[in-house]
Amino acid sequence: MPLLAVAAVLVVLGATVAAAAPAAPVTRCVLADPRLDEVSGMVVTPAGPAVVDDSGNATVVYTLAPDCSVASARSVGVAGRDVEDLARGADGTLWLADIGDNDRQRTTVALIRLPMRGPATVHRLVYPDGPHDAETLLLPADGRPVIVTKDLGGRSGIYTTDAPPAGPSPTPLRHLGQLVVPLSSTDGGPIGPFGRGLVTGGALSADARVVAVRTYTDAWLYRVPGSGAGTADGAGTADGAGTADGVVAALRSTPVDVPLPGEPQGEAVAFTTDGTLLSAGESTSGRAGGGTASLRAVPGAVGLAPAPGAEPSSAAPDTSAPDTPAPDTSASDTAGPVAATGPPVGLVVAAMLVGVVVVGLLLRVWTRAVRRGPRGRP
């Protein structure tokens, strides 16, 4: 499939981007320690940025010194299968998102709760519509996790729970719609333009009023709305900050783009208390054309987020997903109709189907090659 045809598919799926002047990221330091070769999630703690690696690595939380050396390492004590993101509660508890599933075979995914003191505990989650691969956890103060899946074509599923996960039994997730990532022209990432629509990480600002969702090439900033009826489907609250409903409502609005060009494999993003956006990811120096990842910063990024009441994007709630768990082999969520002008609908649909299938095959081949690369990972 020619790249222009795939680009045409992404144009159709793209949402309108709010106008804002992007800030260029500044490199703070290089992630030279081999233990940081596969950073997949990051949060900011009083001791500095804390990061985790993804599958094939020990489940350890590394705290970084100002020069990106490892200041401390804490073993979690629980072997994560594919930890892809990291969140931090107001009490300092860390939440490791063991939600990666490249082959879409897991019956459950998990959140690993790591308190400041004491052992870790595991809270399992189950999708209502079969397995999904995901790399993004957004955890507001109400304790209801919001997971954004990693899907092709700029469309990703948005899932949350009805209550904070608790107890040994899996907590059901509910499908609340799709995130439509706008079209980007930013260069970078391991798979070129195909990576511009793949959601690889997320974060909430310190005041919980700005949501960041990143791809391999960009961070997209969404403002949590300050008004709404506060409904169970995520329509918002009187002040949505700190709630899963507010996060979901934000993801239905128009974002601002913060380009993160040139990252080898950008997967992590976090906010500092002063509103700076931090980004990091995996090093690809062991691959052809690869490079070493850095910790980069975009000062004042929170101030770039759209003002409340910005024009909504084309993301819309999806109530078609069942509320009870389906068998593991059931199909993942399907895209709803897309309103667009331009080429005839038949041609657009055909291009979408062919493009998504071809890119999906290429991405699976690439993912398996990386997972079974020179490190001998399973």
How far do the termini sit from each other? 29 Å
**Helix residue percentage:** 10-25%
Provide the CATH topology: Tachylectin-2, Chain A
Q: List the secondary-structure elements in sequence, H or E.
A: HEEEEEEEEEEEEEEEEEHEEEEH
The tally of structural domains comes to 1
Number of helices: 3
Shape: globular
Uncertain residue segments: 1-19, 227-238, 312-354, 369-378
Q: What is the CATH C-level name? A: Mainly Beta
User: Structural class from helices and strands?
Assistant: mainly beta
Count of extended strands: 21
Description:
This protein is mostly beta strands and 378 residues long. The protein has one domain: Tachylectin-2, Chain A, CATH 2.115.10. The protein has helices spanning 3-13, 244-250, 345-371; strands at residues 26-30, 39-45, 48-53, 60-64, 70-75, 85-88, 94-98, 109-114, 121-126, 134-138, 146-149, 155-160, 171-172, 174-180, 199-204, 210-215, 218-223, 256-259, 265-271, 277-282, 294-298. The strands form five sheets. It has a five-stranded mixed β-sheet with strand order 6-7-8-9-13, with no helix packed on it. The chain has a four-stranded antiparallel β-sheet with strand order 1-21-20-19, with no helix packed on it. A hairpin with a 5-residue loop joins strand 4 and strand 5. The radius of gyration is 19 Å and the shape is globular.
